[in-house]
Write a structure and sequence with these properties.
346 residues, alpha/beta, nine-stranded mixed sheet, two-stranded parallel sheet, 13 strands, 39% helix, globular
Length: 346
């Protein structure tokens, strides 16, 4: 009997995944969500006495790729995302054995066009942003032509007579995806001929708002938003594309541009009057919960009232919290570690 017990114990030990060899949580992903997750990681470390999780800023797309590589000690436990996971990414995860993914809706962030406080304050519209940055725009007859605008005042006489230069995120960034959908597509739909194009040729319409100029008017500034701040300091006539939370962090140097009569603020994003706003996410690998020490506790800290509630500490960093009833619903689903189905993904 004793021999049987010893044998069973040995078998149990060998059955423990190699994951248990790691004692520190690893999170990758969005640069926008990075400061929020870092704050949660620090609180987790203080409260539990466990090692503070390692949080890497890789961009949403890069983070998804790493997250979906598989399950194991050498794979990421969670990823930050400034947009929802795509259907193609969800399927890539499944192919690699990442089948139970827990989704945390963290809160809201506004997507802003920002400028240096040293520059002349500007008010504009989503329509003007589309006309300034799209590769092709409607000509005088409504037909698409290569973008002819060099100066802002050529688009709208009320805008300054300065060269169009907008610094923004690269294709790997979730902020870039949000920029296309929340600003470029929304701006295109403020133009009658573009509305008509959407009805007559949806693919051509999509190509128009997804294609940016390549002549220097739009400048890809990498995943590091701090680089954009430095460049706006050097050129007060340029503009940058940021999440509202980053704008808040740099309020001493930057100002958000009023779009369609609404300035990006905590209040206008929360009440929906500032239209270019988005949800932020964190995705947890359920297979790592209970194996990587502290992952369940870290996840619980993220959805706690203290962190993401209406008066949570992430609000001090620029996060706009979910309404209480929705926050409570998200927290309950995460506490139960309910994996997302993925049926509704695009």
């Amino acid at each position: 009997m004793k021999r049987l017990l010893i044998t069973a114990s040995l078998l149990a030990l060998t059955a423990v995944p190699a994951l248990a060899a790691r004692d520190q949580i690893r999170v990758v992903g969005s640069s926008t969500v990075y400061p929020f997750t870092t704050a949660v990681a620090e609180q987790f470390g203080k409260k539990t006495g466990m090692k503070t999780p390692v949080v890497e800023s890789t961009g949403t797309g890069g983070g998804m790729k790493m997250f979906c590589e598989g399950v194991g000690e050498d794979k990421a436990d969670a990823t930050n995302a400034s947009r929802r996971i795509k259907k193609s990414e969800f399927e890539a995860c499944a192919k690699n054995g990442v089948t139970d993914i827990v989704e945390i809706v963290v809160g809201f962030d506004g997507l802003t066009l920002a400028q240096s406080k040293a520059g002349t304050p500007v008010k504009t519209s989503l329509k003007n942003i589309f006309l300034a940055l799209a590769k092709d725009v409607p000509g005088a007859d409504g037909k698409m032509v290569a973008n002819p605008y060099k100066m802002w005042n050529e688009i709208d006489p009320s805008l300054p007579a300065v060269k169009i230069e907008v610094l923004g995120p690269p294709p790997t960034s979730g902020t870039r995806d949000s920029f296309h959908e929340l600003m470029m597509e929304a701006g295109a739909l403020q133009i009658d001929s573009m509305k008509d194009l959407k009805k007559s040729d949806a693919k051509a319409f999509e190509a128009a708002w997804k294609s940016l100029r390549e002549d220097g008017a739009y400048v890809e500034a990498g995943e590091n938003d701090n680089v954009i701040v430095q460049k706006l300091d050097a050129n007060p006539n340029a503009f940058g594309i940021f999440g509202f939370s980053f704008l808040e962090e740099n309020a001493a140097k930057l100002a958000g541009v009023e779009l369609d009569g609404v300035t990006p603020t905590f209040e206008t994003i929360a009440d929906g009057s500032y239209k270019p706003s988005r949800e932020l996410f964190v995705y947890i690998k359920k297979a790592h919960v209970g194996v990587i020490p502290g992952l369940a506790e870290f996840t619980a800290e993220y959805v706690s009232d203290a962190a993401t509630g209406e008066d949570g500490y992430l609000g001090d960093k620029g996060l706009v919290p979910l309404p209480k009833d929705r926050h409570d619903k998200v927290a309950a689903a995460v506490a139960a570690m309910e994996p997302m189905k993925g049926d509704e993904l695009k």
